[in-house]
Amino acid sequence: MLQALYKHPNEAGTDEAGRGCLAGPVTAAAIILPEGFTNNVLNDSKQLTETKRDALRPILEQEAVSFSVCHVFQDEIDEINILNASFLAMHRALDTMSHRPSFILVDGNRFKPYPAIAHECIIKGDGKYMSIAAASVLAKTYRDEYMAQIHEEFPMYNWKKNKGYPTKEHREAIKKYGLTPYHRKSFRQLPEQLTLDI
């Protein structure tokens, strides 16, 4: 069962999606849930089906005291590296919230401190706290929606299905068609040595 609050009323949970992808943005969400918010379905987005995530999104958006979602795109990822891009996406989501949080809960074990607001990093926090789980659902659904849009431009990579992650199918398409402007050039797109299946 997810906990409603960690320490403070008006605390924001933040999480990102798409860190390990070969293409597309890293997307972060920040959300403040109202005191007393409960939802029996809400969980770490990776534990939920796409149908459940899509059903939760409008509920979270409607119920939230405040929320924001921000993409950091591939060119910026290549420039500052994926870890810094993840922090930047979370900071931008926090920057653009309509309510200033009293405290920030971050999924994972590393974060770049946000100006003038204390934070706590929670390992596997998206499976422990409602606000982080809610942020994980928003980040994932917004990013998936974006990947489905750019899939229309380059359907041969099947981003609608793999969302830019390094699946065998995605790597095969890169070998066949090369890179698109949406690919992260700083990532190793293909293994250096291809082993033979013998």
Automatic annotation (TrEMBL):
A GO molecular-function descriptor: manganese ion binding
EC number: 3.1.26.4
InterPro entries linked: RNase_HII, RNase_HII/HIII, RNase_HII/HIII_dom, RNaseH-like_sf, RNaseH_sf
Key word Hydrolase present: yes
Catalysed conversion reaction: Endonucleolytic cleavage to 5'-phosphomonoester
Protein name: Ribonuclease HII
Range of residues in the leader sequence: none
Residues annotated as binding a divalent metal cation: D15, E16, D107
Chief location category: cytoplasm
Required cofactor names: Mn(2+); Mg(2+)
Entry keyword set: Cytoplasm, Endonuclease, Hydrolase, Manganese, Metal-binding, Nuclease
GO cellular component entries: cytoplasm; ribonuclease H2 complex
Gene name of the record: rnhB
All copies of domain RNase H type-2, residue ranges: 9-198
GO biological process terms held by the UniProt record: DNA replication, removal of RNA primer; mismatch repair
Compartments reported by the entry: Cytoplasm
Family note: Belongs to the RNase HII family.
Cofactor stoichiometry and binding remark: Manganese or magnesium. Binds 1 divalent metal ion per monomer in the absence of substrate. May bind a second metal ion after substrate binding.
Functional note: Endonuclease that specifically degrades the RNA of RNA-DNA hybrids.
